[in-house]
Write a structure and sequence with these properties.
alpha+beta; rod-shaped
């Protein structure tokens, strides 16, 4: 948008008494769309009027540069230092286009209250202008007023102003003039830009707050959210004053205190954000907390005090902000020296804001007003860059988490080699890290004790041969057992302890297949001229407790039950009587093998186990096709024993056990 203005120094000395009336020719400004009225205005202190006639005697007049506050000229007029009072500002606009619609715009109400007149007609009012604090009412909102130029192409602009609340009075905000459609367009563009930047800041605040809610340990996201919200509130009020636009009676005091929020909250939030991003700053935590507490105290004082006193502390607030900015700068310099990652992003954001503020200060000093301020855009750039840096940090953390998850998975898989996953399932645990000392579960399971031994004299068996046979047996078991939903609970000496959650039928079927594979394994050994191996297996069913024992630094899984001892004794009988798979009556009854059409049960009698009063009935379990092939005799009942040699061995074993 085009911009034109007259140049008048804000340091111009006030002119009293005999000054000519302030007149501004708009003829030279016609090509421009929007004009800042930076010129001398007539000021009539302690006087309120709506228009002056040429024949009317003018009261004492002071010409003051606009924009500037009236504190010094008013004090000179009153003969004492003051900023409180009332006055009328007057400017005659000439060389306007006759009967053209024009508009005036100010981003905020001058002083505490104002009434704006064009050729004696009220075109805008904010608050209530009064000659004392009692009969006035402050207001703080944007000024937009339209008027029509006279037939002669001139208009008298009169602005009544009173200030009984703020630390400075007068027209210290730029006044913009232009054709109605140009000012209206500028007004809407300003609002659109403000809303866009504020919406972006609010979106970034929402995302940052969501990050904190999902991970409360990410405290840096919370500090960044507070910083963004303080910038958003500041922009909403100073750039467009949205609360006053939406609510006519919005508190004057509340608006100013919300504006001060960026001075109270912004610097400490940004500093705390840096402290969470750079852990090496922890040694300065005490200084950080002292600064945070001082800012909090200033905020409480500013909130509690009435605005007439609170606004006088603005220089103190600004000093606190300056201290925070210097601290942030010191942090950034230290980070550069330490070659911190992504420090260039933090430096870039600070440079952008610094350049924008410097540009605005220099421009205002030279020309007095800005059509569009770059500071809001720099705040937006700062927020985007900082959020990008935060996103990069989150991405790095996410990558680290992914790597950690892979490592934990590998570690968990390694633990599974020592603690079966089926054991975890029985404990209702999803992961090894969920298992604690003393966790246990009680249930009925099928259990198998099995040992492999080489059929050769002890002096002919080498340790290497024993290891090779046991390793081959372990591989066979590992391949076969998962098919029958079983798992090895322990590897012991030359054998295993295996559990079957689905019952003893699965245990027996698994044992039969293992025996078949051992037969093939022996064929390979015989072909190599080596002694065959045999596996003795005892199957039982009963109630057991599975749990963890040991100490906090070292856990082990265990099975505690009388059934475990019984299965062990059955296996020892199997080895001595040369029946590869022996099964107890409890396992037979639970599995339903007595009704099986493809499995034969050969009753072998009873044995007595130490610690038990009740005898244990044993059966040899073989597939029917094997029995037919070798013509193994079957007993008529559990009590009858057809194999005399087995009877004698069982009686001897019973006495031993």
């Amino acid at each position: 948008m085009l911009f034109a203005q007259t140049k008048v120094s804000s340091d111009a000395k006030p002119v009293f008494a005999d000054a000519k009336p302030a007149v501004l020719s708009a003829g030279s400004l016609k090509p421009a769309k929007v004009t800042a009225l930076n010129t001398l205005w007539d000021v009539y202190f302690d006087t309120l009027f709506t228009t002056l006639n040429e024949t009317e005697e003018l009261p004492a007049v002071c010409q003051v540069a606009v924009p500037s506050n009236w504190n010094k000229p008013y004090s000179d007029f009153k003969g004492e230092k003051t900023e409180y009072g009332y006055a009328t500002y007057r400017l005659m606009l000439t060389d306007l286009i006759p009967r053209e619609r024009y508009a005036l715009y100010m981003k905020q109400t001058p002083s505490s209250a104002c009434s704006l007149y064009a050729d004696g007609e009220l075109i805008f009012t904010a608050g209530k202008v009064g000659t004392s604090a009692e009969n006035s009412r402050p207001s703080y909102k944007a000024v937009y007023a339209e008027f029509t130029a006279s037939e002669g192409g001139y208009t008298e602009i009169v602005m009544q102003i009173s200030n009984w609340d703020y630390r400075k009075g007068g027209l210290w905000s730029p006044v913009y003039l232009g054709k109605q459609n140009a000012i209206y367009r500028y007004y809407n563009n300003s609002a659109g830009i403000t809303f866009f930047i504020c919406a972006m800041l609010l979106f970034l605040s929402f995302v940052s707050l969501t990050i904190f809610i999902l991970n409360t340990k990410k405290i840096s996201a919370l500090y960044f959210t507070l910083f963004l919200l303080s910038l958003t509130v500041r922009m909403i009020i100073t750039s467009f004053n949205l609360p006053a636009l939406l609510f006519d009676d919005f508190s004057y005091s509340a608006l100013f205190k919300l504006e001060y929020a960026v001075l109270w909250v912004g610097p400490p939030s940004f500093l705390y954000f840096f402290f969470t991003m750079f852990p090496w700053l922890a040694k300065y935590n005490r200084l950080k907390h002292v600064y945070g507490i001082l800012q909090a105290v200033l905020m409480l004082i500013g909130i509690v005090l009435p605005i007439s006193l609170s606004n006088r502390l603005v220089p103190v607030y600004e000093v606190g902000t300056l201290i925070g900015m210097l601290a942030c700068a010191a942090v950034l310099i230290s980070a550069v020296l330490r070659r911190e990652k992504r420090i260039i992003l933090y430096i870039l954001s600070v440079i952008i804001v610094g350049m924008a503020i410097t540009y605005e200060i220099v421009y205002l000093t030279l020309f007095g007003a800005l059509i569009f301020s770059p500071v809001p855009f720099s705040f937006w750039a700062l927020a985007v860059i900082q959020f990008f840096a935060l996103a990069l940090e989150e991405n790095l953390l996410f990558s680290d988490r992914v790597m950690l998850i892979h490592k934990l998975k590998k570690l968990n898989d390694a633990y599974i080699r020592f603690v079966p996953r089926e054991f975890l399932n029985l404990l209702h645990k999803d992961n090894i890290i969920d298992v604690a000392l003393g966790d246990y579960v009680q249930r009925e399971l099928g259990i198998v004790f099995a040992q492999i031994y080489i059929l050769a004299p002890d002096d002919k068996i080498t340790l290497e041969d024993q290891y090779e046979v046991f390793n081959s047996f372990s591989m066979i078991v590992s391949l076969v057992m998962p098919r029958y939903k079983g798992f090895v609970s322990k590897f012991i000496s030359k054998g295993i302890i295996a559990l079957f959650p689905e019952g003893s039928k699965s245990a027996v079927d698994c044992c039969i297949e293992i025996q078949n594979r051992i037969t093939k394994f022996n064929a390979i050994r015989r072909a190599a001229g080596r002694a065959p191996a045999a596996v003795a297996m005892g199957v039982h069913y009963g109630n057991m407790i599975l749990g963890t024992i040991g100490e906090e630094s070292r856990l082990d899984d265990t099975v505690i039950s009388d059934a475990v001892n019984t299965a062990s004794r059955i296996e020892s009988v199997s080895q001595k009587v040369n029946y590869p798979v022996l099964i107890s009556r409890e396992a037979v009854e639970e599995s339903g093998l007595s009704k099986s059409t493809d499995m034969a049960l050969i009753p072998l009698g009873n044995i007595r186990v130490k610690g038990r009063v009740q005898l244990i009935s044993l059966f040899s379990c073989l597939p029917l096709d094997r029995i037919r092939k070798h013509s193994v005799p079957q007993a008529d009942s559990v009590e009858e024993i057809e194999d005399a040699e087995a009877v004698e061995e069982l009686e001897e074993l019973s006495d031993e056990i």
